[in-house]
Amino acid sequence: xxxxxxxxxxxxxxxxxxxxxxxxxxxxxxxxxxxxxxxxxxxxxxxxxxxxxxxxxxxxxxxxxxxxxxxxxxxxxxxxxxxxxxxxxxxxxxxxxxxxxxxxxxxxxxxxxxxxxxxxxxxxxxxxxxxxxxxxxxxxxxxxxxxxxxxxxxxxxxxxxxxxxxxxxxxxxxxxxxxxxxxxxxxxxxxxxxxxxxxxxxxxxxxxxxxxxxxxxxxxxxxxxxxxxxxxxxxxxxxxxxxxxxxxxxxxxxxxxx
Amino acid sequence: xxxxxxxxxxxxxxxxxxxxxxxxxxxxxxxxxxxxxxxxxxxxxxxxxxxxxxxxxxxxxxxxxxxxxxxxxxxxxxxxxxxxxxxxxxxxxxxxxxxxxxxxxxxxxxxxxxxxxxxxxxxxxxxxxxxxxxxxxxxxxxxxxxxxxxxxxxxxxxxxxxxxxxxxxxxxxxxxxxxxxxxxxxxxxxxxxxxxxxxxxxxxxxxxxxxxxxxxxxxxxxxxxxxxxxxxxxxxxxxxxxxxxxxxxxxxxxxxx
Amino acid sequence: xxxxxxxxxxxxxxxxxxxxxxxxxxxxxxxxxxxxxxxxxxxxxxxxxxxxxxxxxxxxxxxxxxxxxxxxxxxxxxxxxxxxxxxxxxxxxxxxxxxxxxxxxxxxxxxxxxxxxxxxxxxxxxxxxxxxxxxxxxxxxxxxxxxxxxxxxxxxxxxxxxxxxxxxxxxxxxxxxxxxxxxxxxxxxxxxxxxxxxxxxxxxxxxxxxxxxxxxxxxxxxxxxxxxxxxxxxxxxxxxxxxxxxxxxxxxxxxxxxxxxxxxxxxxxxxxxxxxxxxxxxxxxxxxxxxx
Lengths: 258, 257, 292
Ligand SMILES: Nc1ncnc2c1ncn2[C@@H]1O[C@H](COP(=O)(O)OP(=O)(O)O)[C@@H](O)[C@H]1O
Ligand SMILES: [Mg+2]
What we know:
The complex is a heterotrimer of chains A (258), B (257) and C (292). By secondary structure, chain A is mainly alpha-helical. Chain A has a single domain (43-257), classed as Orthogonal Bundle (MetI-like fold), CATH 1.10.3720. Chain A has eleven helices and no strands. In chain A, helix 7 (147-155) crosses helix 8 (160-198). Chain B is α/β, with parallel strands linked by helices and 257 residues long. Chain B folds into two domains: 2-72 and 151-247, 3-Layer(aba) Sandwich (Rossmann fold), CATH 3.40.50.300; 85-149, no CATH class. Chain B has helices spanning 41-49, 80-83, 90-95, 105-118, 134-148, 164-181, 192-198, 228-231, 233-247, and strands at residues 2-9, 18-25, 30-34, 56-61, 64-65, 73-76, 152-156, 184-188, 201-205, 212-217. In chain B, strands 6-7-8-3-9-10 form a six-stranded mixed sheet, sandwiched between helices. A four-stranded antiparallel sheet of chain B has the order 2-1-4-5, covered by helices on one side. Residues 250-257 of chain B have low confidence and may be disordered. Chain C has a single domain (79-291), classed as MetI-like fold (Orthogonal Bundle), CATH 1.10.3720. Chain C: Belongs to the binding-protein-dependent transport system permease family. Chain C: Residues 1-26 are annotated as: Disordered. Chain C: The chain crosses the membrane at residues 29-52, 97-118, 221-244, 256-276.
């Protein structure tokens, strides 16, 4: 199976789905609210020149990136601190188990009332929801570090910090990265949700809400969703590629054992 | 009657694994196949069982070409632990193939218990495969094939990981089952003694690509015994000959049968 | 296509270094000290929050005792004949739960069926791969405005949002699980004449079950999130609607009670799912545990 057949088949799939969507809307199976696929794609392309939409995307991405970065730094640091202090780890486990299941979107109303600026609310919300996957992956990964590797270093007289830096972190890194990737997707959902609920025209969510006024512009709504999907897919592909490059040794190891 | 004619096989573009294999197995016969490891024994069995289409040649069972797994044929796979289903109890594993035999649940369970008893594992029925040792798992795989009641049985190193005592018991069980049911059996083994002890014939394969190097008739009496048969001068002689053939010390290209 | 295991790293094979020294001593005492070692931090934090909230009288952060009282009054102070549920509880819970489970079940059924198809056909997989990767990447809330236009406000819109959002983990995990069934297991089935539906239900699906369950678990978590968000935006009933209306009415203890309720629901779903998994997948974890 070469790469070419993959690409050809994938293209056929995309074209097929678009064709079916086009036909369904043109044939008028559903009511008039379903715009033809070609119109939606056209609108999505027009967004490239739409400064209002682009600035909305920018504001969404800004909050998302900030929250995710903050969460990564904090969660990894906390994870490391916890895994080196067992008594604290034991005590925080219950806390984590209590807080993690709270659906982060449930905190949207709280975020709306407790921060003065919209950006602040968005970043905090992304931060909160992105923390958990990263923290939990960090904790699990650090717990599973090969003790033999640690003991080897210890036998050469290395201290705790050196072991953490040279053995624990590198071997935990791939799983932390997986956590970041999960958090990235969750974070995007949370930002857009916040914008949709807060309803003051901020970001992609705010833009989508505006298109609802005056009977609604389903073509713009779907074009916006396509942008969001493409962004999400690009982010995911980018992060996967980054992981592959950074942790080539890891991929080799897990594939060999799978 | 199994006929293998001019069978060759290659995996993709790799050099051929099997080259022009000819083999005949008459009804009720037990034929052992020995050969160096990696020479293509499992590949040969998979082609015969209809699990794999050979690149050339033909397999016929009772005159009909084999293009999928015939329904009177059972296989005991070399990789027994992965061929048992971990989500089913041992009894359900053994009873599973009986669905095809149009039996009701009670009959299936009863047959499964009988087969488990015959391999000495009646107590393991309610356990799961992964709770058993390798040797016990192998016996479950054998019990499953026996419960199926095939006319033709293909076994790929079926006693590979059992201890010596159990191995002898299973060899005798196999001979007994064959005697009672008249099953035709094709058995691959890497144990030269075993190939001679259980076989009516021993087929020796050479390596790279596999060809039939020798096809020896085992002229030992049908009733065999672990102690006395292995003492017979014919046994000792045959064993040495097979051993030499497997190691390739003797250019015995002529099959003597 | 890769399987989604969500933020549950317990899914990946753990090393052999799970050795734990068991403390020795009086068992009762051990449980007590163990419980204290686990719970002191939570108790401390709740205590601090209570004290600070009482002294500062911050309207946004009511003390936990108030939240618990409001939580109880709102939903669980009903008559015993109603299992102590209040009328408000019935009004809030029912639409939320119905939408949640309808959306999740719809996604599960469609995802499972499509996943089996994709798992068995590599051609279908390659044709649909880009479409699925894209569909999975669309943040489901972005579709809510569109669903509102199509279905108007109400259950249909919410169920569609949930179903669209949570189908991906089920679909991709099922496809992955079905695709990676051991070849030898399928061959064994073939040898013994287990084909067609029998093979699907007795071999393929059980073998893929660990991955399918992982997908179902992740999507149940997503479903709760999407239930809330769809109610925050487009509903006047349900727990999410309670949340947003109490925020808008500045009834902050009520809002906090809603957050607590959703947290408890999240925990509950996790626990129930863990039980179901233990019941149906014990063979998997135990077989793997013995392997290492
Ligand atoms: N599925 C496969 N694809 C490619 N090569 C294979 C495959 N199965 C076996 N082989 C190769 O064919 C040769 C014979 O294998 P096999 O029949 O398993 O030998 P044996 O059973 O005698 O040990 C080996 O060199 C092995 O690497
Ligand atoms: Mg072999």
